[in-house]
Design a protein that fits this description.
Layout lengths: L1 H18 L26 H14 L5 H245 L5 H92 L3 E6 L14 E2 L10 E6 L2 E6 L2 E3 L5 H16 L3 E8 L5 H5 L11 H16 L4 E13 L2 E4 L4 H4 L4 E2 L10 E3 L5 E3 L3 E5 L2 H14 L2 E2 L7 E2 L2 E12 L4 E11 L6 H4 L3 H25 L11 H5 L1 H4 L4 E8 L6 H15 L10 E2 L11
Parallel strand pairs: 1-5, 1-17, 6-16, 6-17
Antiparallel strand pairs: 2-3, 3-4, 7-8, 7-12, 7-15, 9-12, 10-11, 13-14, 15-16, 16-18
Helix pairs in contact: 3-4, 5-7
The chain binds adenosine-5'-triphosphate.
Length: about 775
């Protein structure tokens, strides 16, 4: 077919070459097909062409013969040329044909050789085929075995596919996580860039800090030595004090005895002087009577003499007068005796009076001496007490400095008193060691006959008042005003006194809790610092985390229009927790209120307390079922020094841990209890990881830990209250709380920094 087509094409070319003036008839072009033996179909000879031309000429212009003749001549010329070319081509084809026959012969020879070798190969192949057949049978056996294996493999493949699907699913979730992680990464990269910039500045700052640190270290060493010395002095002073107190008491006893004997003596003296007075009166009376009698006797004697002279009187009258005179004389003598005895008595009484006077003067001087001694002792006592208080203040300050340098979370333990309905007959489970080393800081807990000892930064016994507790944390409140982030939270079993410690009892001023007391101190200090040029602005927010959901506890601006607002002003209540690159935490959409007075905050606190999720459980009549977070941001500006500070105070009342078996919770209460226990266990996990200095800290496992991340992770002065019930039936829970608190106390979270500067900070409320 291809050959035929080729011949047709060549014929058409030859024809057109002839008709069109032979343009295509060069020796290099494809020859016309009169030499087309290879075409095997239609063949063109010279005659064919001439006939073709003749026919053509016949049909063309029959009228212009001359022109036709010329054309004819021209055609003939070209045809001759064509003929010559055909001849040349034929000769070349003949040459080619000869060469081809030679090569055909060679090929036939080769074919014969190949046939021989193929026969040999056929034999070889038949032997191979036999071999292969045997191999095939064994291979078939293998195949059956492999098919069984294949079935098993298919099963496992199916399983693998299922696994793969699961893996793909998890891959999808992982890729989601990856995308979120990538987002985080990009934000982290941004942070890194800013951190790098900060790092440069910090390095410079660091060198200066290192120098300062060296100085602080030496100060610390001297301070520790001072503490030791002060503690020794304190022990000596305390001993001296107790000795002085004993002396003071015995002297006071002596003084009271002397005083009473002095009173007796003065009473006797008074009595005796009264008696002397009476005796003197009696003596004067008797003397008067005696004088009168003597005068009478003289008159009578004169009368007798007269009678004797004038004997005109009767003897009876005379005798009568003599009797009278004798009588008077006897009476006179008698009175003289009386006067003598009275004078004797008087002298005795006077000597006694003198003696008493002397002894009373002596007693009074003795008494004065004693008074002086007492005054001296009292002064020494006051001095010693002042020294003890000052020493204790210094010790606390140095202790705080040491803790700040170490970067630990501080822990205070508070034991509440037994409640009226608790059984006090079962004996005591809590005791306090009295050794000087841990006095006021140690607590021993007895459980199942075993004693567990713990030491914290401070232990408050049941008798400690709310004021005593506040005094210990007031320094931290001052730190918030100075520009530090401060976080105080209460942890403990349900009913152990957390809410009492943080909020106190409403309506009883002495039993106000830490939160109202902190507010009082902040507003007082705010007023007093006005004279130093400091002006403060405060913002508060209050939230609770209930069943892993954040709830706003403040009235929003939309509901009461009293100046409250939300962080972004939108109506949606999403309450997402976010940490910014400055280490501040924000809760989106949460109500933040600007406050100027204690009264305003008290009103908001009452509002929050009323909104808080509280319920009755077997363990506590008024049990808090949520974690309560009070936050106050304190921004200070000093117009004189152009300084600024930005402090944050977080006060947190955690929901109480409780055993499900003991709480007897069911339904919603059970769900609450489980949620509380879960978030507290997340808190415990975070503390555990921090304690072990792990790379990954699981802050995100609960809302509470994520919110407290800055407080737990450093850059905050953090204090934990561990509240304990003294009831022996709660010893198990108390032991768990104390163990957790000890772990918290051992946590090193970094050194907090003061946020002060000359530049304005962002003024939105943050948690840490
Ligand atoms: N130091 C204390 N002095 C006197 N009473 C106290 C003291 N501490 C606690 N209480 C009383 O003990 C009871 C339980 O205290 P509170 O409600 O504060 O416990 P809680 O730890 O907050 O419990 P929950 O976790 O269930 O909320 C209350 O009646 C409270 O008045």
């Amino acid at each position: 077919m291809v050959g035929t087509a080729m011949s047709a094409i060549r014929a058409r070319r030859a024809y057109s070459a002839v008709v069109n003036g032979g343009q295509d008839l060069s020796p290099n072009s494809t020859p016309p097909s009169n030499a087309g033996s290879e075409c095997g179909g239609i063949e063109f000879t010279r005659e064919d062409v001439e006939a073709l031309l003749a026919e053509k000429l016949k049909t063309k212009n029959k009228f212009n013969y001359k022109e036709k003749c010329e054309n004819m001549m021209e055609y003939i010329k070209r045809l001759r040329l064509c003929l010559r070319w055909f001849q040349e081509v034929e000769a070349s084809y003949l040459c080619k044909h000869e060469r081809l026959t030679v090569s055909l012969e060679i090929a036939e020879q080769k074919l014969a050789e190949i046939e021989v070798s193929s026969k040999n190969k056929e034999e070889e192949l038949s032997s191979i085929i036999n071999e292969l057949r045997t191999n095939l049978s064994s291979a078939q056996e293998k195949l059956t075995r492999e098919q069984a294996d294949k079935m098993a493999a298919i099963d496992s493949l199916v399983k693998e596919r299922e696994g793969r699907i699961n893996t793909e699913k998890s891959q999808a979730t992982l890729s989601e996580e990856l995308s979120s992680a990538q987002q985080e990464l990009s934000s982290a990269n941004q942070r890194i860039a800013s951190v790098n910039e900060m790092y440069k500045r910090l390095q410079e700052y660091n060198t200066s800090l290192q120098q300062y640190n060296c100085k602080l270290q030496s100060d610390l060493n001297t301070a520790s030595e001072n503490i030791k010395r002060i503690e020794k002095d304190k022990a000596a002073i305390v001993e001296n004090l107790s000795h002085l107190k004993g002396q003071h008491i015995s002297l006071q006893d002596q003084f009271s005895i002397i005083k009473s004997s002095l009173e007796d003596i003065s009473k006797q003296k008074e009595f005796l002087s009264n008696e002397v007075q009476c005796l003197r009166g009696d003596l004067l009376l008797v003397r008067d009577e005696r004088n009168k009698s003597q005068e009478k006797a003289q008159v009578l004697t004169a009368e007798i003499v007269k009678y004797k002279e004038y004997t005109g009187r009767s003897m009876a009258e005379l005798d009568n007068l003599t009797v009278k005179s004798n009588d008077l004389e006897a009476r006179c003598l008698n009175q003289c005796d009386q006067i003598r005895t009275l004078q004797d008595k008087l002298t005795v009484a006077e000597t006694k009076l003198k003696d008493y006077g002397i002894s009373s003067v002596e007693t009074e001087t003795e008494c004065e001496d004693q008074r002086k001694l007492i005054r001296e002792l009292q002064a020494r006592l006051e001095d010693a007490e002042f020294k003890v208080i000052e020493g204790e203040k210094l010790r606390k300050k140095l202790h705080n400095t040491i803790l700040e340098l170490k970067g630990n979370i501080r822990v205070f333990c508070r034991v509440r008193p037994l409640l009226p309905d608790e059984n006090s007959d079962e004996g005591k489970s809590v005791s306090y060691p009295t050794s000087m080393e841990v006095l006021g800081r140690g607590i021993d807990l007895a459980q199942n006959g075993q004693k567990h000892s713990f030491v914290f930064d401070k232990v408050f016994m049941p008798e400690s008042s709310q004021e005593d507790v506040f005094v210990e944390i007031s320094q931290l409140v001052q730190s918030a005003l100075d520009g530090y982030k401060v976080c105080i939270f209460a942890y403990g079993q349900t009913g152990s006194g957390k809410t009492y410690t943080m909020m106190g009892k409403p309506g009883i001023p002495e039993e106000k809790g830490l939160i109202p007391r902190c507010l009082e101190q902040i507003f007082q200090t705010k007023e007093s610092l006005l004279s130093n040029g400091w002006k403060f602005e405060m913002q508060v927010s209050m939230l609770e985390i209930y069943n892993e959901t954040i709830r706003d506890l403040l009235p929003s601006s939309r509901s009461n229009g009293n100046g409250t607002r939300t962080e972004n002003g939108s109506a949606a209540k999403q309450y997402a927790i976010k940490h910014d690159t400055n280490g501040n935490t924000h809760v989106s959409d949460l109500t933040v209120v600007d406050v100027c007075s204690k009264q305003e905050v008290s009103y908001l606190l009452n509002h929050a307390a009323n909104c808080r999720s509280v319920g009755k459980t077997q363990m506590n009549e008024q049990s808090s079922r949520s974690h309560f977070v009070f936050t106050m941001r304190i921004s200070g500006v000093n117009e004189t020094t152009e300084q600024q500070s930005q402090g944050v105070l977080n006060l947190i009342d955690l929901a109480g841990s409780e055993r499900l078996s003991k709480s007897g919770s069911t339904g919603d209460r059970l769900k609450e209890t489980q949620s509380i226990n879960k978030s507290l266990s997340c808190l415990s996990d975070v503390i555990f990881s921090l304690g072990k200095k792990e790379d990954y800290i699981p802050y995100r496992n609960s809302k509470l830990t994520y919110l407290l991340q800055p407080c737990l992770g450093g850059d905050s002065k953090t204090l934990m209250f561990v509240n304990i019930s003294p009831d022996p039936t709660s010893a198990g829970e108390s032991l768990c709380s104390l163990r957790f608190a000890a772990r918290v106390n051992a946590c090193e979270i970094g050194v907090p920094h003061r946020h002060v500067g000359a530049k304005l900070f962002e003024s939105r409320l943050s948690y840490g």
